[in-house]
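Researcher: Quick one. two chains, 880 residues in total.
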Amino acid sequence: MNNDSPPYAVEMENIVVRFPGVLANDHVNLTLKKGEIHALLGENGAGKSTLMNTLAGLYRPTSGTIKVFGEKVDFGSPGDAIEKGIGMVHQHFMLVPTQTVTENILLGLDEPRFFMHLLEYDKKVLALEEQYGLSVDPTAKIWQLSVGEQQRVEILKTLYRGANILILDEPTAVLAPQEIEEFMKNMRLMVDSGKSIIFISHKLHEVSEVADRVTVLRKGVVTAEGVSMEGLSKRDLAELMVGRTVVFAVKKKPQEAGDVVLAVDNVQAINNKGITALNGVSLDVRSGEILGIAGVSGNGQSELAEVITGLRECKGSIRVNGKEVANKPPIEAIKSGVSHVPEDRTRVGSAPTMSITENTIMKCYRLPPVGSGLRINYGTAEEIAEELKDEYDILAPSVNTEARKLSGGNLQKVILAREISSDPQLMIAVQPTRGLDVGAIESIQGLLLEQREAGTAILLISEELEELMALSDRIAVIYEGEIMGVVDAAEADVDEIGLMMTGAHAEDLV
Amino acid sequence: MARITVEKRVEDVPRWMPAATSIFAVVAAFVIVGIILKLMGGEPFTVAKFFWNATFGSWGTFSDTLVKATPLILVGLACTVAFTMKLWNIGAEGQFYMGAFFASLVVLIPIMPPDSPRILVILTMMVMGLIGGALWGFIPGFLKARFAVNEIITTLMLNYIAILWNNFWIFNKWSDAGFQMTPTFEKSAWLPRLSDLARQYSFFSGMTLHAGFIIALIATVVVWWILKYSKWGYEIKLIGDNKEAARYAGINITRNIILVFMFSGALAGLAGMIEISGVVHRLQERISSGYGFTGIIIAWLAKLNPFAVVLVSILFGALIVAGREIQPSGLSQLIQGIVLFMVISSEFFLRYQIKFVREEEPPTKGVQVA
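Model:
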């Protein structure tokens, strides 16, 4: 290597990553300067993680070149990448809970060889911690640590292995606000001591706070390549990230909303990690109206759907047609006429090895005509499933086909068919079109509008802003468990909603 | 050049294939046992003939085989019910003992005078057996539903408690002259046997098959109906397939964990009662030779199909009977082990398919190696 060292730590050129049926990265360029924090921004599924997994040696790109410190590399495994000084901290930690911090850091290394010499290595770890301000007790067991501390251990692991280039995959997603602040400081400190960082995020304010440059991905394509953060507003970023795509011609008839069906009043709830997910949410949905919930994922949308359908405990009041359903078992919501298209259609919405018929009767097997006395009338159930299969155009060999054999779109149609055929008063639809192809999206959006015309109150939770704008009557924007404001969809401004999605209150935007 | 590759099956296997594979696996197991015998210097065909004669060869021996199959059917069903919901009840053994204990109380306390009508005594014993087993199922069910305690640990531990509990009463309170058994029960507590008919029909003389076998068959039909056609069966299957989806569908999972555990326990308890009332006619130590554990294997081999449980139980019953006749007696266990091994291995062929791939000739580069 010559004396004037190359300015770039990483150069990725024309990276293409193709999975069966998906083009995850389409000729993507990304350059990381030495000693900078480079943000990689994009929505869920934009291809950020894929690109970084390529750099970390987990995937091999279909085509394209990667240079590290000016040297062309071809990683066959994560080990090769680590050798070149690239360390990745994944969203899901890979730590052994019953072992100490030091033991986890040493795991898989050649040294120490036979005896652990833990005291000695504890000191080494401590020295490393002091250098980068990542304080955590080296002798503590992982299970005793907070999530933030565990993350520090993951970073220490990569630093201990000599990483100069750190890839942090949505590191703030698991942290509480105070921890995030601390984390930002640590990143600065690491950069000041010569490391280079790629920081994956979809939270705009964090990016604008900490990053030097930003690369934005949208649906696998770069929409901004290594732009300096100076002079970039959050508004610009939001536009780059969300973009404007062609909206399907959805015919929404003008319609007067009826009585209030769902009344949510000052609801608070915590998520699975014990962090506040809903912080005093109040909203109403009327019959014949679609209320859209906009927001970046992980801001309390899933939890909102769960508290209404009885799947999660909460504080506050939730009434459906005047009847309290909060903190009641899910059956109460079902009996009150609430139907639910869940976010996760395989984990929650369906039973994988049961047939289409058995999946369609999931909510109605208790009552006639399907249920009679102690037994289930499978003859009738099959007839109903056949009808729904025709009506909703579900593509499957027969109604006896197992749910796991269906494509995402067809499975979603089975779920929608089930939920709509229960003739609901209120419908909670969470990401109903996520991951589906254009045709399926169109038909599912059409079904939701039909329900609206039939007088159902619909709460539509989606990350697709265009979809919300096209389908909703009103849009409520949620951010960190709070409703930032509710706007009339007909007069809504995408930029305004984008800003609220990142934490601006509606009243501050005027 | 042909090469063999193993690929994951993408399409459904034909309907006949799972059953055919299992049967083939059992046959293969017997062939392997034969080869082992031959290698050990034995005469596989002589042994096979002996085996057949000792188990299915005559009505008398077939009756013995069915007697052994009876408790196996019931514990097999007990495990089938629990496993369908993915509840790992390893405690059929303990539930069996508790069923036997509770049923014996009818005679030992006594709850009914010994001269009560037979039908009444038997029915009471059945109810008590069901209650005893259900109670022993309720404990792990409640602990799991309420405190998320791992049912494998609790059911396993409760087995030992049940066995020792039994011993305590046999030695301490109801011992027959210091032996580890109670005095023989009055005839009113005996399940009717085929040999009871020997006076009218000499054909049945010496046949020990008792009415418990009929009860086991009735239980099979009941379990089959519940799992296949009832609302409850649907809930059990749905929870087993996807617990989250079941919760989302409004099913009370906590209650079902307890109920299914009690149902499973009750079936095993009924097996205990039948063994007491149909075979040993008293409460004693070691009434079960590990039936509860064999039940786990049976349910598994039968792929949780109640009717298949009956067939597998008869095969295993035959192995137990043959084990008493054949020396060394461990041969039966060897066969059991190999059958299990083969059937589990055969699952491989249902998930994967083996393909013979004809490879293109590799391009030759000048020198040909002869």
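Chain A touches chain B through 28 residues (CB under 8 Å).
Researcher: Thanks, that's what I needed.
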